[in-house]
Amino acid sequence: MLSQADLKELRKHGIVFDSALRPCYIEPEWLDEEGGFQLAMDAQPTLITTPNAGIPALFANLIDPEMVRVLVQPMKAEELFGAVKKGDWTKWSVEFPVGEATGNVTSYGDFNNDGSAGANFNWIPRQSYHFQTISQWGEREMDMYGEAKINYKSEVDIASALVINKFLNKSWFFGVNLLDNYGILNDPSLPASISPTAAWSTLDVLGVFNDIKRLVSALITSLKGIVDMESDFLLTMSPELQVYFADSSTFGVNVTDLVKKNFPNLKVKTAPEYSNANSSGELMQLTVEKIEGTDTAYCAFTEKMRVHPVLPDLSGWRQKKSAGTWGWINRRPVAMAQMQGM
């Protein structure tokens, strides 16, 4: 322990221990040259206030400026097939024309008038569905959230855009009930599913690849030479099913290697909706992305988001936002194949 002489010597060099060694209730003028006490201080006055050793908790509370938002399931429909605007919010229905060349030839003769050429058309109808959401925010509400450094108006705007996009994505996968409005998973024009060899969890690398090869073979057969193994294919499935692409054989070859080697222009994309799309289990679809410059399928909308005027209320504001969907449009069902139950 330091003596008074030691403390005095340290003070000469700018090192002061006074506050650390004496009680806080001793005033400096009450100390002698050696730092000792001159008063007995044997009688302390009684507190008038309630004994307390802290501060209100709010003064020791920190609000982190970086907000963590709750995660939502990714919206992949547009990423898989793209999205196209058709019409606007005044349109209730649309007709997609399908044209087919007709005709025949006969043997030539200078005076032979046989043979003909023409075209036949079908019209595929779809109906639009328009929906809306309303966001509102009050003056006091905004000020109260402002005390926590939260821009409430901005958060409400984000939420309104999210709920509209979530519904659009859902309509592109499942359509809208009671309307001619269908989705990727329930369009009536989808081909019948091919049964897998077995559950992929029981197959080796070659077994999983062979199921994919069967889908490609089905499309090549149905399109009768329009596509081949080097055509642009899109293979869609759930993220859970894609994990099997990482399985490797004893020679270090996995499913991804085999797919790239045999079908160089085949792309694999995932969406969570493919997982247990119905009671039949995992679904996998193979699509020829484009034939003769025409997209096979796409998601369609009238308007992705229509922002209506902000309306003032007594002490707040309201705003409507709306959108419209045609569902998923499959223009060439013959260019798709699917397998379910892996």
The number of helices is 8
Helices and strands, in order, run as: HHHEEEEHHHEHHEEEEEEE
CATH class of the domain at 174-309 and 322-340: Alpha Beta
Helix content estimate: 10-25%
Structural class, judged by helices and strands? alpha+beta
Q: Given the C-alpha coordinates, what overall shape results?
A: elongated
Overall pLDDT confidence: 90
CATH superfamily of the domain at 174-309 and 322-340: hypothetical protein PF0899 domain
Any idea of the CATH topology of the domain at 174-309 and 322-340?
hypothetical protein PF0899 fold
Major sheet: arrangement of strands: 1-10-11-4
DSSP E strands, number: 12
In percent, how much strand structure appears in the residues?
25-35%
Largest sheet: 4 strands, mixed
| Radius of gyration, taken over Cα atoms and rounded to an integer in Å | 37 Å
Q: How many angstroms separate the termini?
A: 79 Å
Walk me through the structure.
The structure is a single chain. The strands form four sheets. A four-stranded mixed sheet has the order 1-10-11-4. The radius of gyration is 37 Å and the shape is elongated. Helices cover 24% and strands 27% of the residues. Among the domains are: 41 residues, no CATH class; 155 residues, 2-Layer Sandwich (hypothetical protein PF0899 fold). The mean pLDDT is 90. The protein contains eight helices and twelve strands.
